[in-house]
What does this fold into?
Amino acid sequence: MSKTISMSILLSFSFVIMLRTQAQAHYIYTSSGYLYHSFQCKADLQGVANPDTKPAEAECEVQVSQIDILCLNPANRDVQPGSAAVQSTIVNTVQLTPEALTGKGKASTDIIVPDGALLDPQYCVNPNWIPVDVIIREATATQNIYKCTGDDPTPCDVRELASTTESLCVLPAEFDFDNPPVVGETPYDCTEVFSAH
It folds into this structure.
């Protein structure tokens, strides 16, 4: 499953601004089940300099607070759904590349945040059961844009926060394991609660 959160960001030094926040969920199925699980943040940026000369990173931090989880009972091989309140944070960071440029001073980048850490037996109805799949129902998504200020060859070893946006996101109630989010068509209901540029 992949959930997308889109944010637009504006940084300084002719750098980037987050313009909007949108979250989106989707799953990819194969004949044997789910292809991958992830939370995806999409950053739409304005004021972007050439990433080759002014490197930058986009980071997505997802503080998960509510999940639905499918768990397998190993005794009878029955799969049971359940829900759990959780306190888990998943994070990923990507460096902006020239391929992310979409026009003069504009860029778009996707940040895939693996959510495999949520496939934990402690969230099953019975901790002896085997987690099979998870849907993130509620989360706080924070997207940060950093300008990299370190020396070559690893300029992003030293970085400065240029912009941040935080949103509370809830997956609409009609989506569950029987009616999973559709690829690219299932937005979370998000409310921006904080933004700083």
